[in-house]
Amino acid sequence: MTTEPASQLQANVDRLTAQLQAASSDAPALLLQRAQAYGDLGEEALAREDIARAAALVKDPQYSSPDSVAAVERAVREVTISPRAGARSRHAQASDQEIVDLAVKAVAAVGSQCEAKSALMVLEQRVLAGKSVLAAKQVRTLLSAFHDLCEQIGLDAGATEMASALASCVGAALSRLAAPGGEAVKRDPATAAMLADIVQQIIDTWAKNSTNGAFKQQACRHGTRMYTAAVYSLSTHQDKPTDSGLQPAFNFYIGQIWLVGTLATSGPNEASDVCQGMLRLLTADRAQFVYAFVSA
Fold first, then answer.
1. pLDDT recorded at residue 124
2. How far apart are CA 48 and CA 35, in angstroms?
3. Which residue among 47, 105, 146, 199 is least crowded, i.e. fewest CB within 10 A of its CB?
4. Separation between Cα atoms, residue 182 and residue 3, nearest integer Å
5. What is the pTM of this model?
6. What is the DSSP letter of 112?
């Protein structure tokens, strides 16, 4: 069991994260090394996540070999978790706003992205469990942080993981705002207004980056599910078919997210996410969907 100070262990995680960006051919081995580094910090969830990612990679012919498969199997058995309090344990006592502030500092490069990612995982679990309902300002702050990251051309491995954590947390918060079953009696004008503002923030940010192809690819790669949640949740609070508030949202999703997500340069996960999103919106409001699709 390591007795190194936490700052030195964190530096080791940061070093391995940088190497993951520069040496993709060694990704499975580096992920397993970082899994143990997370274990030394007491970060069991992050360690298991890296092992799972390595296990997925070694199924790819590019990375698959008897040695790489054996290394993953060995890591499952042998990676040790330090009894020291991991970041997730520490963040369990933090308020929602403290976690939001930590994420913003990490995006601004004045805080640890590893710490912030772990904190966002805690916050996301609170939201999914119904223990927290993020305020509109908090959601918009996290959304802005996500878009700020995506505007940084050539995200490194750490920033990529941070972008995914931000999008996942915001997506969870937005999904919780959907009216249960889409029933009209449960629609809330205040929630509808909040969702409309958030969708407009997304549209405005994409408009600002209309010529920034790198931004669009990064935002779509990490945020498609979040964008789907925003538009779908908004649709559950509209008085269909008379309310036209959905038209800009559907036009944006089909005219931007669907088109970018299905480009030849997109990965299989992006295409899958955006296709699933299209199906959700089709079921949400067929008339608006068809109109937006024909107009795209």
1. 94
2. 7
3. 105
4. 54
5. 0.73
6. -
